[in-house]
Amino acid sequence: MPEDKHKINDTWLFWGTWSQTVLFTSVWLDFSSSEVFKKMKLDNVLKGDIKVLNGSFYFLNQDLSILYDIFTEKIEKDISWFDSFFDVCEEKTSKLLEYEKKKNLANFLLFIPELLGCSTLVEFFDFCMERSLKMLCSKHHIHLSDLMAMMHPERKTVLMQYQDDLDILSIESKNELNQFLKKYQWVGTHGFEGDSLREDQVLGVKTGVSLSKNRSNNDDIELPEVFHGYLEIGKKLVFFRSNLIESLNRASFCYWEDLKELADKNKISFEDIVSLTDYEILDFIGKPVLKKNTTMDRRNFGLEKIGMEKRVILGDDLSADIRKLRGKDNINSLKKELKGMIACKGKVQGTVRVINNVGDINKVDLGDIIVATETQPSYIMAMKKAVAFITDNGGITSHAAIIAREMQKPCIIGTKIATKVLKDGDIVEVDAEVGVVRIIK
Known about the structure:
Strand 14 (427-431) and strand 15 (436-439) form a beta hairpin. The two termini are 40 Å apart. It is globular and about 65 Å long. It is of the alpha+beta class. Strands 8-15-14-10-11-12-13-9 form an eight-stranded mixed beta sheet. The chain contains 17 helices and 15 strands. The protein has three domains: 1-150 and 221-328, no CATH class; 158-205, no CATH class; 337-439, Glucose Oxidase, domain 1 (3-Layer(bba) Sandwich).
């Protein structure tokens, strides 16, 4: 596999940072035990170890190297191999919808890793595709950004359907507005955190840009045949990258009340409940009270699964693991220019708003520029107001790249350090014609 700047050492690959609750982070630990890994015959090939330290995800470098070789071989010689993968993604999404109606918290928590196994493989395939396409584009003198512009979702995701319904919503009808809010109250949430959709937000964005009506059409660009398979697979990856997590956010919101009831029963807060792992919650569902001393301050936490062993990492152990994997950040905070990959072309200036979690989206005003480690579906209301997006991480099928192309807003991904260099109130120019962010003041 080509050398990658995500690589931390010979063992671990830094994947990205997402601020999430312990509960919604812990369900990722069993991603490699999911049915999709068995279906694709990857369970005996990849180890599937994972570390999450203060929101930073790490996977095994060896696993990604092996998968890269499998990916390139299949896309060139056996593209039908991917059909089995997309069939499982479809099946798990349909199964997820059943849990919205069944309302069984224990079974829902046990099912989530099945969906996240699909989601993780989508991200892994994005990783492999980007590295392979960079070499192909260089060889054939094609701009990767032009190819990315052709990779729009093969069909509408859950949030695209929300946008279509928003476009035709009559705000003069109170009944219609209330029905809309009830149907989409989960918009703005992520996993088990965030704020449900409010009436003032809907009224405020009714004149916003539609997600699916202003897309530029690059499909008439003539591509060498070698790119056709990548484009076919890419459009499906783009769809499932967003739709899997959007669907999970919607289903998870259905269980907020169950978690609140569990918290009340044990005389603890909702924040305490979502500070437990999925296996800790499963351990006491149905029991009279929560185990003593299970809850604690977990604002800073780590989780890992090595082999079959899971561990919650706190305090000095967490600090030691972070130092071991990351060392010291040698970031020049005086940098005046940042470089990244163009996800959607354009050039604008605006005020920076750094979004560290879903709770920060309310500070974004019209004309601001969102800076994040990586955007997620719960940021959609803020993204409609912003004029551009800048991320530390991201790939061809990343959320920021997808939404930027649908909204036709300038976007630069993969800067690595934007959230560490830029701060709220900075005035910057996003030059997504050349992939550069310039700090003006």
